[in-house]
Design goal:
Blueprint: H1 7-29, E1 33-35, H2 39-51, H3 60-70, H4 72-80, H5 85-97, E2 103-105, E3 112-114, H6 115-118, E4 121-123, H7 124-156
Helix pairs in contact: 2-3, 2-5, 4-5
Amino acid sequence: LLRGPSKDIINEIDRNLQDAMAVTRNVFLEPSLSPGGGATEMAISIKLLENLSKIENIQQLPYKAVSDALEIIPRTLIQNCGKNPIRILSKLRSEHSKGNYTMGIDGDTGDIVDMKDYGIWEPEVVKQQSIKTAIESSCLLLRIDDIVSGIRKDERK
């Protein structure tokens, strides 16, 4: 039973309640958590770069592109705090290279902190789905680009 001053507010409260119940359900069904603050994204980015030397030639490009794309999350957190992203990202890369994979960006100050100590965790299933969706969308765009460029070649003939 929900009550409120207007139908719009009641609908908004209902949507918020549904979202909260869905998050709770997801945590019970998939209890794995990942550190927040861009720590997970940076850890994946570092691992991709470390494994880049094992891959030859042009096949390195997608891995490098995904690695760069994943660094956008901590970079955005740093920029939103008004800090210098180049300097702080370098320090964060250094921390992750040392094996401190729970180090991330404090969203209030823009400093590098241990997400485990701060208690900032995100559902792992959400991270996985976000990355899958981003990669699938990129593949779809590349496929569409191939089709369009193929049509243009046919038109020239």
